[in-house]
Structure formats: structure tokens, C-alpha cells
Write a structure and sequence with these properties.
Length: about 210
Amino acid sequence: MFLDRDGVLNDLEYDEEEGRVGSPLSARELKVFPYAGEAVRRIKALGFLAIVVSNQPGVAKRQFSLEELDRMNTKVRSALASRGGKLDAEYYCLHHPEARVKKYRLDCDCRKPKPGLLLRAAKEQGVDLASSYLVGDALVDVKAGRAAGCTTILLGHAGSFLSELIDREGAAPDHMLPSLKQVPDLIVRLESAPSVPPSGRRRLSRSQ
Ligand SMILES: [Mg+2]
Ligand SMILES: [Zn+2]
């Protein structure tokens, strides 16, 4: 199972200066959702690998240092592990096409909505994409998951605005849930479904 980080494992922050909700910019302000560790533990107990796939252009944009990104990832990793939800692997895209740091200024293949990060993770971790899930809180996650051939789960609340956006972007998720907390139950339900779904994309099986 592929998991986006911000908005899935940890909360988003409200940036007063930019007037928008976005990724946390420091380990101190990063808050792991209290239910995340238990959810990851249950996902793993169902036989899935838990793999983070996350765009993290903050270093490229000089919003924080590579060390701070490391501290943030360590905080997420430890919080999950302390509840039995040890991550199996983590993949981050550090690039951005308009990066201020030249080294990361790249129109790469791994920045979601492109599927590069998932494809690499699948190859390295021996994951069958067609029987895997992608859980994200943004349409770029859904797009990457669809492009990689995974079953997609979008976290959030469906409203008319989001529905319109999903239509316009052609990024309909296979499932929609309020948060990661509900994901294990959905997987259990899908797994115990009596009939075989018509599409291979929706077929549930183990990540390995
Ligand atoms: Mg996110
Ligand atoms: Zn990249």
C-alpha cells in the first residue's frame, strides 16, 4: 500500500502568510495523526507493505533544510512505529520545476501526478501495482495511483466543489474516505466481498 505523507499520516498546517493550507515546514509543527500508527499496523496485519510516496519540494524551495526534512520524516516514522505501524519503505521526490535550489530544479518523472515514485518503489520493493492501493489526500495522488495502475483511495469529504474538480481533472478515485483511520475497514470489506470485481484494478490482493 502506497501512502502519501502530508494530510494522510500527519496533519496539514495553515500558513498565515500565504493564506493556504499546506505541508508542515518543520518537525516541531508536524503533527502525526493520533490514529495513524494503529491504521498502518492494521494495514500491515492484512498483509500489505506500508510505503510512503511523497512530494517534498520544500528543500528545493528553500522552505526548510534537508536536515529538517529528515527530522520530519523521523518524527513520522517513530510515531507510527511506536503504535506498531512500522513503515517498510519511504520514497520522496525532492524536485520542483521552479526550484530555487538548482540541484533540485528538474521536470522529473517522480513528482506526482507522475507515477515515477510508485513505479520505482514497486520495482525495488517487489510490489504488484495492479493489486496495490494508493492512499492520498490530493488529486495528484489519485492521478499518480491511476497512472501506476493501483486502486486509489482519496481522503477527504466529497462536496460539490471537489466533485467538479474531480470531473474536470478526470481523476476519480476508486474509493473515498474521511481519513486513514477508515482505510483498514475498507480493505477488510473489499477482501471479503463475495463476487470478483470485473476490473483487475480493483482486485484486492497482497502487496507481495
Ligand atoms: Mg498530501
Ligand atoms: Zn522528482
